[in-house]
Amino acid sequence: MQKIVPHLWFDKEAAEAAEFYASVFPESRVMSVTTLEDTPSGDADMVIFELWGQKFMAISAGPIFKPNPSISFMVNFDPLLFDGSKESARAKIDEVWNKLADGGSALMPIGEYPFSERYGWVQDKYGVSWQLILTKPEGEPRPPIITSLLFVGDQCGKAEEAINFYCSVFEKSKLGSLHRYPEGHSPDKPGTVMFADFKLEDSWFTAMDSAHQHQFSFNEGISLVVNCDDQEELDYFTQKMSAVREAEQCGWIKDKYGVSWQISPIELEEMMVNGTREQLNRVTQALLPMKRLQIAPLKNAFEGV
Fold it and tell me: Which of 52, 101, 130, 215 has the fewest CB atoms within 10 Å distance of its CB?
């Protein structure tokens, strides 16, 4: 099972959005849709889907939070994924761009940039942001879809510190590339992170600082689910990463950089996907009052004990 899973928050469109994304990206599918009844947001659809080998989760839980570009998804169109054909990769990037841009908005128009001959950053009609890039088939391969963190506002300049912090928390971690801003890129300060990537468990991430004015920051609209094997692991990640006590709810935590995580047992997903309606309702009601998740009461609820 993928250890870290991006989680998207929607008002009512989780299932619709998942179907749309599965139609846009290669090798993609919706895996399950489960309705959680009688939550504070009413009935909420929980969706699990896969895009080009990357697992995602989503929920329809009302208009409380919305995705924004502080967390986006880098999509690598490597010619090696298209039988070595640069032309095929370029054609695919334009095809995907046109679908994502329909009803959305371009944050950086598709075109040629100093770092890539074909790149564009788009916020789609559901508010989720994607960075599409034609990559060169050189160096260590990266997966097609990578979660990307943009450190802005009060967090600008902390990307490198955050990378090192995350790599210290996750036992299986790895630093990748690191490129700093040179002189002459005002308002970005020389030495801050222009682009870096790193690996936590089986997932790659990218991180960047940006000193430009942005009308967004990290929020719960896009969070990261950490699938834990047991209570000991749940407690470890919660204690290591939770920095805002009042943000703890139903396994959700917020770290010291403002990024939201969900520290959750693997068993919970299995209960939600495979349970009967009665089991789902019992687990949901057991889950809602919890701040930090406890596996034993959830299992008891599932089993009707």
Answer: 215
